[in-house]
Amino acid sequence: MPLEPKEVTEMLRGASCRGLDAYQQRLLAARCRGTNFAEIAAAWGYSESNVRYAFRTIEDIVLGHLGLEHDIALMTSWFDLHLDCCLPIARDFIERGAVFAPPFPVRSARRHAG
Question: Which of 26, 41, 42, 82 could form a disulfide with 48 if both were Cys (CB 3.0 to 4.6 A apart)?
């Protein structure tokens, strides 16, 4: 049986995630504010596939343990619900209008093939 929207919202509200690094938070700020993968990749000098992979990893971290599918609307809802508690770096970039301002984010030290 599908979940009701209210149930999904409560699940997202309860899903704190304070372990996202600066790159991940900046990527969330860009993507959850409407920028597409190609634009993010071009601005930061990464391949589009690397940016997509990094975002899917964040979706796994945030939505995966809830049993929810990857979905930009769900991620944006989660982002908005947790901007003040779990995403201080993202909030700072947004407030300063610096999501795409240099210096561009450095990818995590963990390299992923693909």
Answer: 41
**Whether 76 contacts 29, CB under 8 Å:** no
Nearest to 105 by CA among 16, 22, 29, 17: 22
Neighbours of 40 (CB within 10 A): 22
End-to-end Cα spacing for the chain:
35
Q: Tell me how many domains the chain contains.
A: 1
Does the model's pTM come out above 0.70?
A: yes
Q: Which residues contact 57 (CB under 8 A, 6 or more apart)?
A: 24, 112
Q: How confident is the model at residue 33 (pLDDT cuts 50, 70, 90)?
A: very high
pLDDT of residue 70: 96
